[in-house]
Amino acid sequence: MANSSNTTSLPTIPFQESPDYKGHEVLSLNAALIACTSFILALRLYVRSFMSKALGVDDLFAVLAYGCLVALSAFEIRSVQFGSGAHIQFVPGPLVAHFFESLVNNTLIYFFGTGLMRLSIVAFLPRLAQDLTSPIFNKLVYGIGIVIIVQTLGCFFYRLTECTPIKDIWLVPTTPGLNCVSPQQENSMMVGHQAVGIMIDFALLALPIWVVHTKMLFSQRKIQVILVFSVGVFVLVTGIIRIVMLKTLLFLEDLTFNMSTIGPWTDLEGHVGLWCASFPALQPILRIVAYKIGLRSALYSYDKDPKSGNTGNGTSSVKWAGPSRSNNGYVRKGSGIDADDGSEKGIISSNEGGIELGNLNSMDRAIHRKVEVDVSVEEAPRGKRLEQDYGHINGKPNQNWADL
Known about the structure:
Blueprint: H1 2-9, H2 23-51, H3 57-80, H4 93-128, H5 135-160, H6 183-215, H7 220-229, H8 232-248, H9 255-278, H10 283-292, H11 362-365, E1 391-393, E2 396-398
Antiparallel strand pairs: 1-2
């Protein structure tokens, strides 16, 4: 009798106070992700618009991805009101119906959010490898872009048309009379989407490192650039964890609670991927911050103020012949694109021999003049003036090299 009484009283407990409740974690994580992603994207657009003046297609994809990922996190926060994070037996029936409706919206937005995030990286790669004349690299970039588009649209329309009529996909799967694909088929589609995504993420991680390794000699800067792109390893790990959960968890048995377990990894995959896509564009700001806090000995990689022609240590220097500069002092190419804006080939060194100007020591930056003197002595008749002893240049006497 006691067990029966406890069983009947369980649904009357507010789901926010139920055992193992995780709704607060889902809410806090997504609020933090929205704030961090908004800040990083704002910095990216500021650098590209006002510092490097190099807005591109990759920025457009990043803005579209940002809209989808913020909407995804907003739906995750909203689903907490419908019982996300609580065991389903503690969630009232009407809220469960709203939860399934929100879950469908989350899935559809997730496809476009991750797809646009990956396309922003694909659109960035040609800017990174402008001087890399490799047909294989270009074919790989375009091939990956096509795979991303096909994967995104294919999975989106499959999920949208799982039920006939389409509007039934927003109903609870246990509703009688539904004409929909089985939950096992839907789960297989999600596993396939995640598996292809892992392979794409691995390729998007390997291609930038290939470019940097090809165009830069071993140096501290090369290691730093590779570490920036290596943040994408976390996206790979996130995808692997997510696919394991898709294969092992039985979602329909306790969907509201299980989604609070896999949901954070879904959100992290998209947001962290967009961070990785934005980090290279933030190089000018990162360079200034590193200089201000003492992590760099000079603001510019060639240790020179482009406005005054002085070196970073305050000494005078001969003005370098090179690309034109914008009014705010950043190096610009003839097309107006920053030659070192952190988002193009300025990330890597293309100097002759692969030597970076920032790695030269002070002796190498000085201008040396080497004079070789060849002295010869000849006998001449006494009293005869040799024409070669005293010549005239512009009407003025000039000393012979032997008199130096």
